[in-house]
Amino acid sequence: MTRRRGYALVVAAATSWGLWSLVLRPVERRGPVSAEAQALIVMAVIAIVLLPWAARDTARRGLSPRDLLVLFALGLSDAGNIRLFFRAMRATTLPVAVLSHCTAPMLVALAAPLVGERLRPRTLGLVAVALLGLALLLWPFGAGGSVTGALLGLASAVFYATNVWLQKRAAARLTAMQLMSLHALVSAAVLALFLPTGGLALDGGQWAMMLAGALSLGAAAGVAFVSALSAVPATHAATLALLEPLVAVVVGVTVWREPLGPYGALGAALMLAALVGTVRG
User: Fold this and answer.
1) Number of folded domains that form the chain
2) Backbone Cα Rg of the chain
């Protein structure tokens, strides 16, 4: 794969992730559906669609007990990540939900000493800038954001940061398809435990929209991003992935008419600047 194509795939994946509200909100407007049901459908589709490739790689390479343990832990963590993120998008505006969720890179940097890596002093300053930005997003005259939604977004970021560390541990032994499909099987099983009675009683339109979103914004975007990492430096991919919160903020303001206001706009800009500074090291 050429580097140019790799960059194009990263941009396409990150842009796709910022469009989740275009699937989730129309589904919710057709009738009641839980965040757990939405998350379960997404993870199940990812697991099933990619399972043939994961099975092929597993037949070739095998799985050690350690691999199984990491996949199980990753599945638990990602179930918490997607469940809380989808709940955050219900509880507050898109800018608040997505930007609080996307603080994960800073959490990864803050946790560096726990895994034997160095914590850079500038990281603490960037975290302070991001927290200031989040406070402005929640300002009563800004985005009109909900503190509950922000806390849900931050909690999902904790799980997402855990995913990053687990994936780093497993990447040397497992293929991308194994990581994506097998951990998604665990996530789907965990999410099913939290599914309310009748949680999958969606109408035909809801099923069509959720399956289309899971296939495109879930499975296809995930494969595109992982495939591109062979041609694109990780730091560049992480920086381009910040298109996700930018796109989500634009969608929130232009499509869903969520007020941002001057305080909210300044807060969003500060958070994006802090995230860029973090992933660029």
Assistant:
1) 1
2) 18
- pLDDT at position 142, please? 47
User: By three-state DSSP, how is residue 2 classified?
Assistant: coil
Indicate whether 117 pLDDT > 80. no
DSSP secondary structure letter of residue 33: -
Q: Shortest CA distance to 196 belongs to which of 90, 26, 39? A: 39
Instruction: Say if residue 141's pLDDT is above 60.
Output: no
Which residue shows structure tokens 């499909």?
A: 181
Parent domain of 56: 3-279
**How large a percentage of the chain has pLDDT more than 90?**
52
